Amino acid sequence: MKVYESTNKRYKLAELDTNYYLIDMDSNILAYFLPTLVWFFSFRAVEIDKEMFNKLVSNGQKEYDIMATVVISMFIGRPVYKLSIIFFKSLMLLLK
Q1: Residue 60: what pLDDT?
Q2: How many CB atoms lie within 10 A of CB 20?
Q3: CB count, 10 Å around CB of 60?
Q4: How do residues 1-44 score in pLDDT, each as one tens digit?
């Protein structure tokens, strides 16, 4: 059995032999409290055809890379930090 990411994060797609399944990951409430044991619980699954499977499977990387997030936060975080220091210093001078 192969498990694939879906375009909707609530669902996983599974391929078993020649059959394709849509697995609802939110159907079991215990998965929220024990996420590391998620595959030991039963979930609702619906059999789907090959065309629907190809439509729902997420191809390629659609989220931002972690390195891009780090670089953006460095460029935004430093000026925001400096501006917050200036703001709070001026606020403290006004309150004195």
Answers
A1: 47
A2: 21
A3: 4
A4: 888 888 888 888 999 999 999 999 888 788 778 878 877 878 88
Q: Which two tokens stand for residue 54?
A: 């190809």
- 22 forms bridges with which residues in the sheet? 13, 46
Distance CA 55, CA 47 (A): 14
Q: For the residues of 16-77, what is the DSSP string, one character each?
A: ETTEEEEEETTS-THHHH-GGGGGGS--EEEEE-HHHHHHHBPPS--SPPHHHHHHHHHHHH
pLDDT at 80 over 80: yes
Q: How remote is the C-alpha of 88 from its chain's centroid? A: 35
Choose among 10, 6, 35, 33: nearest CA to 20. Answer: 6
